[in-house]
Model the fold of this input.
Amino acid sequence: MNIIYGNGNTEFTVPTGQKVAISAENATCVVYYSSFPNSPEMWREATRFTSSAALLGTFDADRKVRLEVMGGGNVTYKVGADPKIVSRYDDKIGIGVIPATQALDIDGNIQLTGTIIGGGSIQTIIPVTNGVGDPYEIEESQSGYVFTNEGAAALVYIELPLASEGLVYNFVVVDSDGMRIIAQSGDTIRQYTENGSSGGYIYETTVGATIRLEATNDSGWIVSSAIGVWTPG
Done:
């Protein structure tokens, strides 16, 4: 991936069958290509855009491409059979060569159209403040979620669903009131060599502590990773 900063220009060759993805951040980009293979003397304007993104190609022969950048921002470009870049401008983000259309709001929702590829994922973070008389009940559909005790006024109680192979949940202590994670009757929580009691729990009150629980079968949970001293009970 290549970046042009400020006002300037660059020339490069796009091989036969290749494409070029281009993203302009707070800048205007004018794109030219040679009318004949490798003939920079005869330029033809392909497109121009401001604070957006574009995909140029596929060419039937090697072509020279020229990018002219104006406006003081920067332009990112990448050549390849299926080039992917991240476009970012006006506090918005686009993936691939699709211009951004939605603001990225960490405290709100991320709207996704399409499929996540490459093994990536989007994690959902849920703050829980439920106390002893009304524990928060995790659902199977929330596998992969992260649960915190942000905003808690007392020890937070969280109840796991029945263990089912493949379920995974993550927990982070962000408030010193702590959190207690409770297994269903018949399920246990194993931490290394120590296997908890049926319907037992595990808790921690230290801010910054984390734990990841995975169900490797239908009879209990295994602590696959942890930071802090999680006490069983």
Remarks:
- The radius of gyration is 26 Å.
- The domain at 2-96 is CATH 2.60.120 (Jelly Rolls).
- The chain has two domains: 2-96, 125-232.
